[in-house]
């Protein structure tokens, strides 16, 4: 019995594979403003995932409303005024919780990281960030460049 092989051109790339998984992870988000997913990868193996939402055991914005909406805080500003953790933060925390080093890894994120997440990614030893969409945070981009972290945006 002959086994038909899928043509190589029909196979998605590693970038597409991990970004699609980040997109799937983002569907667990409980943020009312933006659903973000992140996947930390090393040597083509997933180490950790994260999505944006309230800390473990606390009520989600889906249930109690959005502080940022109530206070009319624009996107990209006053990150500390939020119930939720960002997807990147959750991915780093999940890895730490289970003793998994993310040093020299790549993170796939559905959106560009904010300045707080950029600083965390720098200190966590992430070497590359692959994003699907942008985010209004110029300082984040400048710090990532200064830290010599590769930042790539996926082509649509």
Sequence of secondary-structure elements: HEEHHHEHEHE
**How many distinct helices?**
6
Counting helices, strands and paired strands, the structural category is: alpha/beta
**Largest sheet data:** 5 strands, mixed
Net shape: globular
Number of DSSP strands? 5
Percentage of residues in helical conformation: 25-40%
Instruction: Give the averaged pLDDT, no decimals.
Output: 92
Fraction of residues in β-strands: 15-25%
| Oligomeric description of these chains | single chain
**Side-by-side strand order of the widest sheet:** 2-1-3-4-5
Unreliable residue stretches: none
Rounded to an integer in angstroms, the radius of gyration calculated over CA atoms is 17 Å
What is the end-to-end distance? 39 Å
In summary, what is this structure?
The protein has 156 residues and is α/β, with parallel strands linked by helices. The protein has six helices and five strands.
Description:
- The structure is a single chain.
- With 156 residues, the chain is α/β, with parallel strands linked by helices.
- Helix content is 33%, strand content 19%.
- The protein is built from six helices and five strands, in the order αββαααβαβαβ.
- A five-stranded mixed β-sheet has the order 2-1-3-4-5, sandwiched between helices.
Task: Annotate the secondary structure layout.
Elements (H helix, E strand, L loop, with lengths): L13 H13 L10 E6 L2 E7 L9 H4 L2 H4 L16 H11 L8 E6 L3 H10 L3 E6 L4 H9 L3 E4 L3
Parallel strand pairs: 3-4, 4-5
Antiparallel strand pairs: 1-2, 1-3
């Amino acid at each position: 019995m002959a086994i038909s092989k899928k043509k190589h051109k029909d196979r998605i790339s590693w970038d597409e594979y991990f970004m699609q998984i980040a997109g799937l992870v983002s569907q667990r988000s409980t943020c009312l403003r933006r659903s973000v997913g992140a996947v930390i990868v090393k040597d083509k193996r997933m180490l950790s995932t994260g999505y944006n939402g309230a800390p473990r055991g606390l009520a989600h914005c889906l249930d109690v409303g959005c502080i940022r909406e109530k206070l009319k805080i624009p996107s990209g500003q006053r990150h500390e005024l939020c119930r939720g953790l960002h997807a990147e933060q959750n991915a780093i925390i999940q890895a730490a919780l289970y003793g998994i080093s993310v040093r020299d890894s790549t993170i796939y994120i559905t959106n560009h990281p904010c300045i707080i997440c950029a600083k965390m990614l720098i200190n966590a030893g992430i070497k590359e960030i692959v994003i699907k969409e942008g985010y209004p945070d110029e300082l984040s981009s400048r710090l990532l460049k200064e830290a010599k972290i590769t930042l790539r945006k996926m082509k649509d």
